[in-house]
Specification:
Blueprint lengths: L4 E2 L2 E2 L5 H12 L4 H30 L5 H12 L7 H8 L1 H28 L6 H44 L6 H15 L5 H32 L19 H14 L6 H5 L8 H27 L13 H34 L11 H24 L3 H29 L8 H38 L15
Antiparallel strand pairs: 1-2
Helix pairs in contact: 3-8, 3-11, 3-12, 4-5, 4-9, 4-11, 5-11, 5-14, 6-7, 6-12, 6-13, 6-14, 7-12, 7-13, 8-11, 8-12, 9-14, 9-15, 12-13, 14-15
Main location: membrane
Pfam families: Aa_trans
Organism: Cercospora kikuchii
């Protein structure tokens, strides 16, 4: 046996074996049983020290996120091809209501995100959204929000698998290839991109994601602008409205509004991201950087493309850029489709592994066993999302319904309740600040309730309309035209 080794493994500084012999020689009375007991105690101490080192290294691994990278993670979560659905929302709402809704809802989202950050600072143990709801609604609220959180993000993974399928169909343009091939490829890419377990590492991909979506938006704006200018009558001949077009129904208008609301749904993952920050107080910089960026991109994209294309603008708008240009735009948008989709799987995976292994080093994903569990978990999440997306013929409409049910809480009424129950100091009427914030949060709460009720109604009507008009595709179909 080499120096520094016992039957129990490595002993630091050479030394337990020599120390045991010295103790026995010095005492003359130590029995083999006493020596064995000391060996066990020494091993337990060494093992405990090793576990402490592992925990420390694991915690350090998951506490490297700067506010700049938090901003990128939030951008990845929030700004995807959904931004190119804003022009169609403008076509339904009209230019003026569209701009007002986009700017106004963006400012509300910034405020509610600020409240979420305040909760995290006041209660550092809150790692995910469900933990925060547990503070106000107890165990029932925790379990309910856990289901909402996991279901919503898994469905988003499935949504991006469908979007990837549409992109590949458009880019390759080969009707003879079964669409399910593209669907499976999309799911595999989402799985691979979701494997990095820390948001610090995910943020590296986020820079590619941001460049991808900005490039796709610019190509679409330029192409639609050039096309409008070349038409008879030029830009002045484009049919766009300042106000909703005659005949616009309530459900159509509110469905378009929920599309804008969905584009600002970044608060759902904010607790998860902030848990990795090395300086959590810097979150304010991130939410302002993200919020103002979103407002600028969404307002400009919605207004310009709507003004260039008019009432017939497609969703996503890059389909209005012409066949060839849209193929190029979809190709450039591939990174944002898969990076923005995969981060949802990563967040769900982190939530599940931390809940399933709260006191195990597996949660830190730093050894073979941890990586095996993590890889299998991400695969299961991706497969479930993909199966649901392919199996449900009206999946996109279902996602709209889920968004109305859940985003109304994550973005609006939960933050309002957080402020009243966790943040507010003193009575609501004590001081102008409390009065102003109380009124603000009551308004936010009302917005959440309206989105919950009217958004659910609009989404159900949309599902009914799709069935009535025959727009519902078949499940697991090879027909490429079903995805258009």
């Amino acid at each position: 046996m080499s120096t520094g080794m016992t039957d129990y493994g490595v002993v630091r500084d050479g030394g337990y074996e020599e120390k045991a012999q010295t103790d026995m020689a010095g005492s003359g009375s130590a029995s083999p049983r006493d020596s064995s007991q000391k060996d066990i105690e020494k091993y337990d101490a060494e093992n405990q020290l090793g576990q402490q080192v592992t925990i420390h290294e694991g915690q350090a691994k998951f506490q490297r996120l700067s506010w700049q990278r938090l901003t990128i993670c939030l951008i990845v979560e929030a700004i995807a091809l959904g931004s190119l659905s804003v022009p169609s929302a403008f076509a339904t709402l009209g230019m003026i209501p569209g701009v007002i809704m986009t700017v106004g809802l963006g400012l509300v989202a910034i405020y509610t995100s600020y409240v979420v950050g305040q909760v995290k600072l006041k209660h550092p143990h809150v790692a995910h959204y469900a933990d925060a709801v547990k503070l106000i609604w107890g165990r029932f609220g925790y379990e309910l929000t856990s289901v909402m959180f996991v279901l919503f993000l898994v469905l988003l993974v499935g949504s991006h698998a469908l979007t990837g399928t549409i992109a590949f169909i458009r880019i390759i343009n080969e009707p003879g290839i079964c669409a399910l091939v593209f669907s499976v490829v999309s799911a595999i890419i989402l799985f691979i991109v979701a494997l990095p377990p820390t948001f610090h590492d995910v943020a590296i991909l986020g820079y590619i994601d941001f460049v991808s979506i900005i490039a796709a938006i610019l190509i679409t704006i330029i192409a639609t602008g050039v096309n409008a200018h070349s038409q008879p009558g030029g830009l002045s001949a484009v049919d766009w409205q300042l106000w909703p077009a005659e005949g616009t129904t309530f459900y159509q208008a509110f469905l378009s509004t929920t599309n804008i609301i969905f584009a600002y749904s970044f608060a759902v993952c904010q607790f998860s991201f902030m848990s990795e920050m090395h300086t959590p107080t810097d979150f304010v910089k991130s939410i302002w950087a993200l919020g103002l960026t979103e407002i600028f991109i969404y307002t400009l994209t919605g207004a310009l493309i709507y003004a260039f294309v008019g009432q017939d603008v497609s969703s996503p708008a890059l389909l209005s850029a012409g066949f060839t240009v849209s193929r190029v735009a979809f190709g450039i948008a591939l990174p944002v489709i898969f990076i923005s989709g995969s981060i949802n799987g990563t967040v769900v995976g982190r939530y599940i592994i931390e809940r399933a292994f709260p006191n195990s080093e597996i949660r830190y994903i730093h050894n073979k066993k941890g990586w095996l569990v993590w890889t299998v978990l991400i695969a299961i999440i991706t497969i479930i999302g993909w199966i649901i997306a392919e199996a449900i013929p009206f999946f996109n409409a279902l996602l709209g319904l889920i968004s109305a049910l859940f985003i109304s809480g994550f973005t609006f009424y939960f933050p309002a309740l957080f402020w009243f129950q966790l943040i507010k100091e003193g009575k609501w009427y004590q001081g102008w600040k409390n009065i102003a914030l109380s009124v603000t949060n009551v308004i936010v709460l009302i917005i959440g309730m309206v989105v919950l009720g009217a958004g659910t109604y609009a989404s159900v009507e949309d599902i009914r309309h799709q069935y009535t008009s025959g727009e519902v595709r078949s499940s697991f179909t090879c027909d490429s035209s079903s995805y258009s």
